[in-house]
Write a structure and sequence with these properties.
With 403 residues, the protein is mainly α. Helix content is 69%, strand content 0%.
């Protein structure tokens, strides 16, 4: 009798459980579209804020025009900029919300797993502002982690406003996070894949459909708000150049990047542990990290800030040893120290820069596949290993370079 009932359920579709698509998904999808639009606007605001604080800290002017802190003429005084920014972020975390600390992705995961996908409204305000101050003052971070947290907060607040279930709150939180990344990087497909691999913990239509709609909406609006992609256009590499030997070398490069990703991740945890042993309040840890950032940035200014220009150089084929070694030594050091100190900022751009520099370094001993080829391989492989998101890393590299 039990077997007959199970067979009846299977034939009726009920046996598919959560993989069925009910009418409820239409409601969630309808909410995901405006969330994607709001996340795109948040991405625009965040990038403008980063440019504003960069101009304030390094050039003494009130402007949202894009500029790199590496172009400053402050001399040794520039060492003070990351310290000042870190003090402000520490105060914001202490008296505003402790949840603005970190790079955003772990905080989003924690909200999903421990808080029923609930994020406080003040986090949506404080996270982008603190990240903009941190990056604008020279912090070696990316904008993607903060926008993931901010977009996720927008989605969570909408879900709470409509008193949705925990599963539906999670879907809209992730939809906002994916939309924020999609708008920041002009990468709608990899944003969905990243959301699936890092945040959703499921591959079910009830959640993938709204997340995909939010990401697509954000990518559409990005064209009008920030312009079209790719963010790091590459020199074209004809597929006819990729021989079996080259593919074997790609596998070798992947092994090297995977090995390097281990100390890359562990260095952040090591500095987190070291800061945790200090006999002072955690509010002051970012200022100590800011000292390291300032000194490192004085000797290698390209390590300061968001670093998209440096990633672009590597992808375009710049493999000058002073650039490559500077990124692998200074960027790695100041990023891991600053992130370990508990300040606000993202990890994707720094990992991309370090991976690109590693690929450029490997290019000295690998077959010539054209300008920037091995830098692109390094970016994708290092992202895959460091974040453990292989599918997202593959598509993300393609979307960023259009190669």
């Amino acid at each position: 009798m039990q077997g007959i009932n199970q067979e009846a359920k299977h034939r009726s579709g009920a046996g598919l459980g959560d993989f069925t698509v009910g009418t409820r998904v239409l409601t969630i999808a309808a909410l995901a579209i405006p969330i994607g639009a709001v996340a795109a606007v948040c991405a625009l605001i965040l990038l403008r804020l980063i440019a504003l604080f960069t101009n304030i800290f390094y050039f003494g002017r009130f402007s949202t025009a894009a500029n790199s802190p590496a172009n400053h003429h402050l001399g040794w005084l520039a060492v003070l900029a990351p310290v000042a920014g870190a003090i402000i972020v520490g105060l914001m975390a202490r008296f505003g919300s402790e949840r603005i600390r970190g790079h955003g992705i772990p905080e989003a995961i924690e909200s999903i797993l421990l808080n029923g996908s609930r994020i406080e409204p003040k986090v949506a305000l404080l996270k982008p502002v603190s990240a903009a101050i941190s990056i604008g003052s020279g912090g070696p971070f990316g904008a993607e982690g903060p926008i993931i947290m901010t977009g996720g907060a927008c989605g969570s607040m909408v879900a709470q406003m409509f008193h949705l279930t925990s599963a539906e709150r999670k879907t809209l939180l992730v939809a906002g996070a994916a939309a924020g990344m999609s708008a920041t990087f002009a990468a709608p497909i990899s944003s969905v894949l990243l959301a699936i691999e890092l945040l959703l913990f499921e591959r079910k239509p009830r959640s993938i459909i709204p997340v995909a709609l939010a990401s697509a909406t954000a990518a559409l609006l990005r064209q009008y708000l920030l312009g079209q992609g790719p963010l790091f256009p590459a020199v074209a590499h004809p597929s006819s150049l990729i021989s079996p030997v080259a593919l074997l070398c790609c596998a070798l490069a992947g092994v090297v990047c995977g090995i390097v990703a281990i100390p890359l991740s562990n260095s952040v945890y090591m500095f987190e542990d070291l800061f945790g042993k200090l006999p002072i309040h955690w509010m002051w840890w970012p200022a100590l990290g800011g000292v390291v950032v300032g000194v490192g940035g004085h000797f290698f200014p390209q390590a300061l800030g968001i670093g998209y220009d440096v990633i672009g150089q590597l992808v375009q084929g710049d493999r000058a040893l002073h650039l490559v070694i500077g990124v692998l030594v200074v960027k790695w050091l100041i990023w891991s120290v600053a992130l370990g100190s508990g300040t606000s900022g993202g990890v994707l751009a720094p990992v991309m820069m370090i991976g690109g520099a590693l690929g450029a370094l490997l290019s000295y001993g690998l077959p010539d596949m054209g300008p920037g080829f091995w830098a692109m391989i390094g970016i994708g492989a290092t992202l895959s290993a460091a974040l453990r998101v292989p599918m997202a890393a593959i598509v993300f590299t393609v979307e960023q370079t259009h190669d």
